[in-house]
Amino acid sequence: AREKYLNSERLNLISELSASVSHEIRNPLTVTSGFLQLLNQSVTITQEEKKYIEYSLQELKRAETIVSDFLAFAKPQSENMIFSNLEAEMEYTKNIIIPYANMHQVEVEYSFNNSLYIHYDKNQLQQCLINLYKNGIEAMKENGGMLFINVYEANKSIIIKIRDTGIGMDKEEISRLGRPYYSTKTEGTGLGMLMVYSTVHKLKGTIEVESEKRKGTVFTIFLPV
Ligand code: ADP
Ligand code: MG
Questions:
Q1: Per-residue pLDDT reduced to its tens digit, 175-189
Q2: Closest to 128 (Cα-Cα) out of 203, 48, 195, 183
Q3: 180 lines ligand 1 (CB under 6 A)
Q4: Whose CA is nearest to atom 16 of ligand 1?
């Protein structure tokens, strides 16, 4: 119980801190990118200088990704609060992820079967779902596979099940999920699961992980009404 308490304290702190930091950093990043792009179009610069500009733009883009992850997860809860049954968000995020899935030979199977209404932040929920889908697809990068997304209700809860047939995780890897910057990917930020846990926590829900190496992973989110 003590560990749980510390965990949610830590999440609140990180969430508040990152909100202000992300806002402050995003503007200078955008401005710098803009000027570098202008510079890149100059006819007087050498090939070598062009290369440096392109590296800089790449790095700025990476910084922007990190900030976006933070920003989405730190968004104040009152901003986009709605009372709904998730259907619009489920449909929207499924459609967004399909091109990314196709790119990696992943087929998406989706079913929505519930009618429960809860209060939630629209953007935050979308970001949370996309983070889980992306992780699932990225776990199948090698050989493709299936991503199952199922929503239904049981015992006055909304249940969201997200299953992939990817590389899976062992016990130790599962226990690292949600730790800031924990990533096994070269291009990973290690912030996706932190955002997922934070969102579920804010909705007073729980999340279960079942995983087996080389078999796949199931994330089950329970959201109380
Ligand atoms: P990132 O995706 O940027 O690496 P995340 O916080 O989203 O950061 O995920 C952290 C790590 O958890 C991933 O790098 C990966 O090792 C592991 N992980 C998350 N979801 C899955 C999954 N569905 N299958 C296998 N590993 C996963
Ligand atoms: Mg991720």
A1: 999 888 899 998 788
A2: 195
A3: no
A4: 184
